[in-house]
Structure formats: C-alpha cells, structure tokens
Amino acid sequence: MSLVRFAAATLCSMMLMGVTTAEWLPREGRELVGTAAPEWKGIQWIQGGPLTLASLKGKVVLLRFWLTDCPYCQRSAPALNEFYSKYRNQGLVVVGLHHPKSEGTRDLARVAGAAKQLGFDFPVGQDDSWSTIRAYGVGSHFQKFTSVSFLIDREGIIRFVHDGGEYHQGGGPDHRECNAAYAALEAAIRQALEGER
Length: 197
What we know:
Elements: H1 3-16, E1 43-47, E2 60-66, H2 71-87, E3 92-98, H3 108-117, E4 124-127, H4 131-135, E5 149-152, E6 158-162, H5 176-194
Parallel strand pairs: 2-3, 3-4
Antiparallel strand pairs: 1-4, 2-5, 5-6
C-alpha cells in the first residue's frame, strides 16, 4: 500500500472512530488566552446579580455576550443551559451579558423576556454602554461577531475563547465546527474545574 493510501485509510478510520486530527481553535482572540479577564463595569443586572468578577474568584466563569433576536445566541442557548446545569455544583457560574444594538433592545423587560424564553436560569445583565464588551476586545480583537464567549478560571485568567457565532451539539454535517467548538469548550470547562480550588 502506498504511503498516501495508508495515510488516507488511517485518517478515514480515525474519523469513523470519532477521533479528530485537529483541535478546534478560534480564528480571532486567541492572544487573550492566558491574560487576566477585565472586571465588569456598568452592568445593569436583570437576574442573579449584582455580581463582579472579583466576587466570583474561586469559581470558574463562562461568560457569554449575547443579544435578543440573535440566531447564533438562540442556537447556543441550550449549550449554556446544559453547562450550567451539569457543572454548577462543581463550581461553574454561567453569566450572560446582553449588549443592545438598538433602542428597542435597551428595554430591560424585553431582555428579561428573551432570557426567560431562552431558558436562562443563570445570572443575566445588560452592558448598555458596551464598556465591558469593549474591554473584552469586541471591536478590536473580535471583528466578525459580538456574541463571543470566555471561560475564566478560578484565578480570573481567561482559559478559553469562542470568537462568536454558535456552539452546540447536533445539527448535521453543516454544524461540524459548532460541534467541535462545543466539545472544546466542555473540555476546557472540565479542565478548569479540575484545577486547584
């Protein structure tokens, strides 16, 4: 068997067994991994607050910037709910910070209704002035999406970045990257939770 045919056969068998040859990586914001997460400022808390990042030291924090009527946020909502349900007793806190893009989406009652519709039981706030979302690099490190996610370890260090769009399980072959991002995020959550308490 030629070397090329052997490599192709090996790759096919690895794919059939569910083994991937490359780990999912974000296209933007990788340089933020390993840096200190900025404190949250100017947040109007809708549920589960008020919170500061400093007050959550010792916890692992999954921070998602989201907005109403965002299809990527709607498709990622089940993953956020699942991670919160599955890992909160081990020290994970999920926080959703809404960042309005129009006057209509500044209405806190509308945001609260959207959070309820998405099933968010975790803390939700609104970054009305975008001061926190900008501190996390939206508009500088992140150009394509504003709905980005960060995993912050017990010491306040960013350990994982999802550069926007969606992550979830399932959805068929067109969602391989979404599935890979979901798996990479869950692996990062587990690793952060297993870290020193």
